[in-house]
Amino acid sequence: MAEDAPSAAAAEGSQHASAAEEGSAAAAAPAAPAAKAAEALLPSLSIWPPSQRTRDAVVRRLVQTLAAPSILSQRYGAVPEAEAERAAAAVEAEAYAAVTESSSAAAAPASVEDGIEVLQAYSKEVSRRLLELAKSRAAPSPAAAAPAEGAASESEAAAAAAPAPVEE
């Protein structure tokens, strides 16, 4: 009987091995439907419109860019935090509305590539509006203001010196 014990254990081990193989085969079988389910979800990946969480992250980043030391704030001046929060929310909302109202974004994009194009347009619109905001807040330096006034005076002088159009 002592001799039977190792062979019984070996036989039992082989049964466990075959059960494990069956288990892995069974595990592989559900993996195929799981993979198909994942593939079915993948096409539903939506680049546009961004989630509210993503839009909030954009606003937070804009606030950092306006209020904290950045290239933009160094060049045009930092914006106080409270004002930066209001301005960043407005910039993001206006950019989102402008891109959403455009003809290419009126409906949900047909493909991921179309969604990426709309997202790029949104990003450019946010950047453009942020730069406009920073420039509009920047106080003109006295040296920059003088030539601008001189140019305006010159154009007014040229308009005054030009002959009036003749009406017939």
Explain how this protein is built.
This protein is mostly helical and 168 residues long. It has helices at 4-41, 52-67, 71-76, 81-101, 112-137, 142-161.
Helix content: over 70%
Q: Residue-averaged pLDDT, rounded? A: 73
- Number of helical segments with 4 or more residues: 6
- Shape verdict: elongated
Structural class: mainly alpha
Query: How many strands in all?
Result: 0
Unreliable stretches? 7-28, 142-168
Q: What's the N-to-C terminus distance?
A: 129 Å
Radius of gyration: 33 Å
What series of H and E elements makes up the topology?
HHHHHH
Largest sheet: none
* Strand coverage percent: under 5%
Short description:
With 168 residues, this protein is mostly helical. 76% of the residues lie in helices and 0% in strands.
Topology:
Layout: H1 4-41, H2 52-67, H3 71-76, H4 81-101, H5 112-137, H6 142-161
Helix pairs in contact: 2-4, 4-5
Essential attributes:
0% strand; single chain; elongated; 168 residues; mainly alpha
